[in-house]
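Give me the 3D structure for GGDEF domain-containing protein.
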Amino acid sequence: MLNKVKNSRQQYHEKIISNLQDYSYRNKRYSIEFALAFGLCDDSNDFYDFVNSKRKTDKVIALEDNLCCVIIDCVSKEDAIKATSNLVHGFKSKKSKETLYSGVVSSIDYENDANIVASLLDILEYSISNDMKGLITDKDYMGHSV
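Predicted structure for GGDEF domain-containing protein (146 residues):
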C-alpha cells in the first residue's frame, strides 16, 4: 500500500491541485478556510461507505478505487477534524472490522495549495508507515482517536 502511494504521489498531487481553484480563490479573497482529508480503505467496496458520510457541500476526489481526498469547505481547524471524524464514524458504523487510514490538513496552516497538498500526502504516507489505522492524523502527526 505504501509503495503504491509513493509511486503515485505526483499524480495524486496534480489531481488534488486541479480541484482546488475555487476553494483557494475564496480562501484568498474572502478568508474562507477549507480543509483536505483523506480516506484509505482496505478495498474499493469500502470506499463508498467512507464517501457516503460526507456533507453535501464537501467534494470528493477519487485518487484510487480505495483512496480519496475530500475537500471540506468553510471550516476551522477544529471543525475540519470534527468533519473528518464524522466521515470516519460513518465508515465504521458499516465496516467495523475494516482498516481505514484518515488524515486532515487545514488551509489556515499553509500559504499555498502545493504546500497543503504535499502535507496531506506526507501525512498519508506517515499514517500507513506507522500503522495508524483508526486514527485521524493531522499535520503534527498526532492521532486523534475516533
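The chain has five helices and six strands. Let me know if you want a second pass.
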